[in-house]
Specification:
With about 425 residues, this protein is of the alpha+beta class. Helix content is about 30%, strand content about 25%. Strands 9, 12, 15, 16, 17, 18 and 19 form a seven-stranded mixed beta sheet that branches. The protein has a four-stranded antiparallel beta sheet with strand order 1-8-6-3, with helices on one face. Strands 5-4-2-7 form a four-stranded antiparallel beta sheet, with no helix packed on it. α8 crosses α9 and α8 packs across α10. The protein starts with a strand and ends in a 7-residue tail after the last helix.
Length: about 425
């Protein structure tokens, strides 16, 4: 029997999804977990992987159609079954070709034995991480841990494997022809609308509009702004960015500095990390940091979970990972849920500062302005003033005045400012 392709349930509250694009057509060969079609829900836009390897036999639901979760949207004639499947006439040649190309599955290779050095790493790695390391022949001593105390997380080991190419044995290295055949065809860019065109909103744009109006109606928005002397961190980044990328395979950006400074302040002022729940105040145990990402087709806020448990390297890797997966439609519903505080960065486009709308159900959002050089009055340790050229950034806090008093918001932002201007943490 062919394998059914179903509309997945992308989160507990999701009841339907819209197929926005099929990435394959009937008769095309597909590999298990290869992106097969794109969907849009009221939580996230995502690429859905193929449930099995074989030939796409039938598309039952066309692009632009909204159906309920668990609806069969297509079928795949799987390896070894393609010829026997009662496929439509047009799919028969592809099915025949698939059968001919099928080959016996090689016996599984035993996982490499765990080295003594790896055993010494057990204290800083959970069982799942050790299992992944054994399956890919990776020594945990080579992996930089981003959890508290240098613990190695699943993300750490997976990023190391990807960077080293360890996920595929050398004997199975595909040929250039195989790589070319497996590479997805480039997607044509959507035509730009002409002046005067009436273009329907995308699902994402509709949801952004709805959420922004709801936030304005829900929270009593107030904003405060702080000017931060960012020279210390600019100089530190310029000094360390080359070595950081060589050691960790990740670019050193400014965002983890802002996130870390906010995390430290939230730990001192937990009311900023709380939210209103009816007539109660819910204080969250963890700091789940929403990181706003601007996309060509809208805005999304993926969430860096348990940001307070990550060191600087963990923050940088997590922020980079969320941004890349947001831009390639690889986010899952859980990746965009559960934030307790949000950081947005309009400064990357040249804004001096912004007055962002609160990301519900958060009670506050911090906006990061552009980093510019300005003449500032600088006071030395003897109390003498002078004018110097400094790197300056303006930070704003949008907060819900129903819960957060102005004095508390100002104290919180004063602490963020101090954390940045007196930065002393190890960057890595």
């Amino acid at each position: 029997m062919p394998t059914d392709i179903i509309m997945p349930q992308m989160g507990e509250s999701i009841v339907e999804g819209t197929i926005t694009k099929w990435l394959k057509k009937p008769g095309d060969k597909v590999q298990r977990d290869e992106p097969l079609f794109e969907i849009s829900t009221d939580k996230v836009d995502a690429e859905i992987p193929a449930p099995a390897s074989g030939v796409l036999r039938e598309i039952k639901v066309t692009e632009g159609t909204t159906v309920g979760v668990n609806t069969v949207v297509g079928t795949i004639a799987v390896d070894g079954e393609a010829a026997a499947a009662p496929a439509p006439v047009k799919a028969a040649p592809a099915a025949k070709e698939e059968k001919k190309a099928a080959a016996p599955t090689p016996p599984p290779q035993p996982a490499p034995a765990t080295s003594t050095q790896d055993e010494e790493e057990e204290a800083r790695s959970p069982p799942l991480v050790r299992k992944i390391a054994r399956e890919h022949g990776v020594s945990l001593s080579q992996v930089s841990g981003t959890g508290l105390g240098g613990r190695i997380t699943k993300q750490d080991i997976m990023q190391f494997i990807e960077s080293q190419g360890s996920s595929q044995p050398a004997s199975a290295t595909p040929s250039p022809a195989q790589l070319a055949a497996a590479a997805p065809a480039p997607r044509p860019a959507a035509p730009a609308p002409y002046p005067g065109d009436l273009v329907p909103m995308s699902n994402m744009r509709k949801l952004i509009a709805k959420h922004m109006i709801e936030s304005r109606r829900t929270s009593a928005h107030v904003h405060c702004m702080y000017e931060v002397d960012f020279t210390r961190i600019v100089n530190l980044r310029n000094k360390l960015k080359s070595g950081f990328e060589q050691r960790h395979g990740a670019r050193l950006t400014f965002m983890p500095f802002f996130v870390r400074a906010a995390v430290m302040a939230l730990q001192q002022w937990p009311i900023i990390n709380a939210n209103i729940d009816g007539d109660n105040i819910r204080y969250h145990r963890h700091i789940n940091m929403g990181i706003a990402v601007a996309l060509d087709w809208g805005l999304i806020v993926p969430v860096l979970k348990n940001a307070g448990d990550l060191n600087f390297l963990g923050l940088q890797r997590g922020i980079t990972d969320l941004g890349e997966r947001a831009r390639t439609k690889k986010l899952k519903p859980d990746d965009v849920e559960g934030s307790t505080f949000t950081v947005t960065n309009p400064g990357q486009f040249g804004a001096v500062f912004g007055l962002p709308i609160i990301n519900q159900p958060n009670s506050a959002i911090m906006g990061v302005g552009g980093i510019t050089k300005q003449a500032m009055v600088v006071t030395d340790k003897d109390g003498s003033d002078s004018i110097a050229i400094r790197s300056v950034v303006h930070l704003t806090l949008g907060y819900d005045h129903r819960l957060i008093d102005g004095a508390v918001a100002d104290q919180f932002m004063a602490q963020v400012k101090k954390n940045l201007e007196t930065w002393s943490e190890e960057v890595g």
